[in-house]
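Dear Dr. V.,

Thank you for agreeing to look over these. As mentioned in my earlier message, I'm a first-year student in the group and I'm still getting used to reading structure tokens, so any feedback on how I've presented them would be very welcome. I ran two proteins. I've put each sequence directly above its structure. The first is here:
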Amino acid sequence: MIHFFAFCVAALPLRMVHALGSIAGWIAYLASPRYRKRVRTHLADAGYCDGHTRRAAIAHAGKQMLEALWVWQRPAKDLLAKLDPQDFNRLKALQRPGKPTVYLSAHLGCFEILSKAYALHAHPDTRHFTALYRPPKRAAVGTLMRAGRAAPNISLAPATLGGVRSLMQALKAGQVTGLLPDQVPSSGDGVWAPFFGRWAYTMTLPARLALACDANIVFYVGERLPKGRGWRVHIVPLTEALSGEALTDASVLNRTVESLIRKMPEQYLWGYPRFKVPAGAPQPPAVPPAC
């Protein structure tokens, strides 16, 4: 059923997919009191109490859900047509052999288009991209996701010890890797660090990979453009130095994610349970983080 639904979504123009996604976002918001409370609380904690930002965020969450199916199913030429040619010029510099790079993309905009944009606009010496992912609970969704994310120059690594080894091997070989730094890690794989004025269990893996492999950290965002025009890729190198101390480095990454979200708050997935306590993880500090 999920494969048939994805096929139907992919057959539509992107503008219609986004329109239907907006409706789906509102249905999810109105149907679930728990989700609705989380969205409102997270927005308020970040200082967004206005109705305009909340309404836009509800719609964009639905757009993100449906556009992922569109990105997974459409042929390369259709995806490339939805990206600004200037994006490719920026990507070229990051594709060529050089210092290994850790790409970080938060739950912001269309993160599904980013590795596709990297891989599909490739030239002969493009470096291989290894992306970390968390396998979905439903096997059918996992099959669809892996097939949809597959592309030349891309490998998928599950969020397991073996997957982390794959990332490490790729970086040591001078390649590039990608992961979501605001995804809640499993117990033991993170620290409690400030995020929008609250403690968020934050993964330590990106900083550890970068320090162990002398790699660059680069943030990138697929900004969703209006009226189904596609996406604009923003590439933002990390400007703060990493220290090797887990809390300090996690805070550095969270601050960068915050600054990116502030530029387009309506496109962040505020309904994502960012502040949950993973099973087996210590409770967050009782004192709120200092501003």
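The second protein is here, in the same arrangement:
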Amino acid sequence: MSIRCVLVLCLALPLRAEPTAEFVFDTSPFPSCHASTIVETENGELLAAWFGGSRESADDVAIWMARRDAAGWSALTEMARHEKTPTWNPVLFRSADGALHLHYKFGTNPRQWTGAYRRSEDDGRTWSETRVLPAGLLGPIKNKPLVLTDGTIVAGTSVESYHAWAGWAEISRDHGRTWRRHGPIAHPDQPWGLIQPTIIPIPGGLRMFLRSRAIGRICSADSYDGGESWSEARETDLPNPNSGIDAVGLRDGRAVLVYNHTAKGRSPLNVAVSEDSGATWKKFLDLETEPGEYSYPAVIQASDGAVHVTYTWNRTRIKHVRIPLEDVR
């Protein structure tokens, strides 16, 4: 075959898409930010939220949000602020009735948190007033809930006391209006334990993955009754340096996990894929490898199949990465 024919064939082949990265904002009214969350609206736009202020746990920390449409990310909107009290860990998700939910926590520290939320019926353009959850319920603690086919919402939550950590599941059967807590999910040998569950579907049930303290590994537990009861947590093969993780079950049956593949620190930040419901993982993408803090990822699959990730970039900005589905391999 001639060189000219080869060139024509190569030009005829479609160009393979690559992951694209961007910052959600270039300038901001706060010097520090952390703990982002992302959701797709019904019209295919993206919403991202995070907490920002002078520093984590400072009493000026508020919840902020931005929208991404075809023109890019919008200006920032302040979504929640409590007088002389910091806010924490927003979580965006959409329930089966089409409503968007923004959950977050407020309080001096995680041992004194109160759960709160706002609800939108118009794709996030207007929101309800802030509502406070009953004592004993915190709502999704860091990661998006899993919405089951019957509309049931299974949210991973957790409690951090002075001497123990444990994961829980909070379940709503009325599109997020009321909740009941189930658990705890704990490691049998480590009371310092586990927090911040992320949940994926598996054949016949659910599987959660949890951040660990003093264990050094991401842990997992299973439920076969819709999240009402869970197995004991067990260690996976993936390292965890006491840093947040997030996972999503893809529509083709695979799962994607974003995490720090290291025993210490919060760099690098990596993406892995599993073809066996999270029993084994294959790391396929490094989002960040330089020294610094790249942490607290949030991950979703959009309606076009692409995987979207947001994460903390050195505590000063939020980064957004779009991964084409064909790159998840």
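From my reading of the second output: The mean pLDDT is 94. Residues 75 and 310 are 17 Å apart (CA to CA). Does that match how you would interpret it?

Kind regards,
E.
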